[in-house]
From TrEMBL:
InterPro entries: BamD, BamD-like, TPR-like_helical_dom_sf, TPR_rpt
Keyword vocabulary terms for this entry: Cell outer membrane, Membrane, Signal, TPR repeat
Name recorded for this polypeptide: Tetratricopeptide repeat domain protein
Coiled-coil blocks: none
TPR repeat spans: 70-103
Lineage top rank: taxon: Bacteria
Domain spans labelled Outer membrane lipoprotein BamD-like: 38-224
HAMAP family: OM_assembly_BamD
Gene3D superfamilies named in the record: Tetratricopeptide repeat domain
Native source organism of the sequence: Thermodesulfovibrio yellowstonii (strain ATCC 51303 / DSM 11347 / YP87)
Length: 248
């Protein structure tokens, strides 16, 4: 009986110690969003994107103060961009702006949407549509967050998008012009003159407009664009080439 009693005492003590140890372990593994963010960054640097996102999602779901939840959402979007998944990144950046439109990180999220499209531009032949999407997002950034910190680089991004879109229109217009579909060509060329007056190949566009109207025997229009070509680009090779036009 004494032996049994001693055994029960020892068992109770061991159980108590184990219980205390368990609580200690739980305390050591308590949720810490800062630690989770650091671990997520480490996983991203190792290209373990899915595991990183699991930690970031846990921050969003568990952090009661919601102090780090916005940053976790932003890092989820960033992780998709680094994983070369631009469409998924765009979705997550949009979600960030919807959830935290007044956040100091919101301009970064909007700029990143534009850049996700911008990096997909392949050239004027196939990239004009993507350039238009990038341009729309960059203009949205200017409208929504006029005090954004991208004042030096954003105008260059916008100009490149505009040039690519205009160049795409010029390629299509030249295709119609070569086929003799002058009315269709004029639609493209005049769209460039109206919407992209700073286009780098505007002199060529004006020359082709003169030629298109001349071929349609719409001489007043042809003369109008010839005058504009000579005024804006007097030293251009296309202005000199246009001197050979004869209007009767």
């Amino acid at each position: 009986m004494k032996i049994l009693f001693k055994f029960l005492i020892i068992t109770a003590i061991v159980s108590l110690l184990l219980s205390c140890g368990g609580k200690e372990a739980v305390k050591k593994e308590e949720f810490d969003p800062v630690v989770y963010l650091k671990k997520a960054d480490e996983l991203v640097s190792k290209k373990e994107y899915e595991e990183a996102r699991k930690l970031l999602l846990e921050i969003k779901n568990r952090e009661s103060a919601k102090e780090y939840a916005p940053l976790a959402q932003l890092k989820i979007a960033d992780s998709y961009l680094k994983e070369d998944e631009p469409e998924l990144a765009i979705t997550e950046y949009r979600r960030f702006i919807e959830l935290y439109p007044e956040s100091t990180y919101a301009p970064y999220a909007q700029y990143s949407i534009g850049m996700a499209y911008f990096r997909q531009i392949e050239g004027p032949e196939r990239g004009a549509g993507t350039a238009q999407k990038a341009l729309n997002e960059f203009l949205k950034l200017e409208k929504m967050y006029p005090r954004h910190p991208y004042g030096d680089i954003l105008p260059l991004r916008i100009q490149k998008c505009r040039n690519i879109i205009a160049e795409g229109e010029l390629i299509i217009g030249k295709f119609y012009h070569k086929k003799g579909s002058y009315t269709a060509a004029i639609g493209r060329f005049e769209g460039i003159v109206k919407n992209y007056p700073d286009f780098k190949n505007l002199d060529e566009t004006l020359y082709l407009l003169v030629d298109s109207y001349k071929n349609l025997n719409m001489l007043d229009k042809a003369k109008q664009y010839l005058k504009l070509l000579k005024e804006k680009f007097p030293d251009s090779q296309f202005a000199k080439k246009a001197e050979g036009f004869r209007f009767q």
